[in-house]
Write a structure and sequence with these properties.
The chain is an all-alpha fold. Helix content is 67%, strand content 0%. The protein is built from six helices and no strands. Helix 2 runs antiparallel to helix 6 and helix 3 runs parallel beside helix 6. The longest helix has 22 residues. It is globular, with a radius of gyration of 17 Å. The N and C termini lie far apart (43 Å).
Length: 163
């Protein structure tokens, strides 16, 4: 592998993202921004479940946190409190918006933000180590949040993960 090859591959990736997508991932080809977030969360949970079985605990933790955020974004979009271009650009911002519109209580969103701040970043970037117990606990939390929010949604039937 050379730097020339890396530069070539970067250009190929850029071109792939510049083209109109074809063969879109099944069940994600939806015109509704809220449903897209819901189904991304479904996919993340399904992926986390498969990775959990393989003991890729770091990836399970990462995917579970992102699934929580996509699920919250689904609800923000569905309720019309946010538009796709206005979604929070930060992880804590997602939790703040969830509290602001009453998806969760202030204390719950503070706990979620603390979990993200204290454990996601440490596990992914710093010296925290993933474990099966940590991955399992976070996956269970993400699954429950997904089911909780989906169960209170008029579009919850659009969930494709079976949670």
């Amino acid at each position: 592998m050379s730097s020339t090859e890396v530069d070539h591959l970067i250009a190929e990736v850029q071109a792939a993202f510049d083209r109109r997508p074809e063969a879109i991932e099944p069940e994600l080809d939806v015109g509704d921004a809220a449903l897209l977030q819901l189904r991304k969360a479904c996919r993340l949970l399904a992926g986390a479940g498969a990775l959990r079985d393989a003991r890729y605990d770091t990836l399970v933790i990462e995917a579970s946190f992102v699934a929580i955020e996509r699920t919250v974004e689904f609800r923000l979009l569905e309720r019309g409190t946010m538009h796709p271009d206005d979604l929070p650009g930060t992880h804590p911002g997602v939790y703040r918006e969830a509290a602001a519109v009453g998806i969760f209580s202030e204390s719950t969103t503070e706990d979620l933000a603390d979990l993200w701040r204290e454990h996601r970043a440490k596990t992914y970037y710093q010296d925290g180590l993933a474990s099966g117990a940590r991955a399992e606990a976070l996956y269970a939390l993400a699954s429950e949040i997904h089911a909780y929010i989906g169960g209170r949604s008029r579009q919850g039937y659009e969930c494709v993960c079976g949670n």
